[in-house]
Amino acid sequence: MSETHDDPARAFVTALARDIGVTIPESCLPGVLVNRDLLRQYADLVNGFALPDTCEPAFDYQP
């Protein structure tokens, strides 16, 4: 496991999985922790994007 994944993060993920009735095999836990970190980075990007109160909602999406 990488050095960025400390015991508290590991314990948190394990406890959360147990709380919702999911078993994470020990061999999968490093990948789960990496994905948790990646999702946290994405959430930080979204939360860090300031939208003014005057921004109009997009009612129709057209790619």
Automatic annotation (TrEMBL):
Pfam families according to UniProt: AtzG-like
InterPro entries, A to Z: AtzG-like
Name listed for the protein in its UniProt record: DUF4089 domain-containing protein
Protein species of origin: Gluconacetobacter johannae
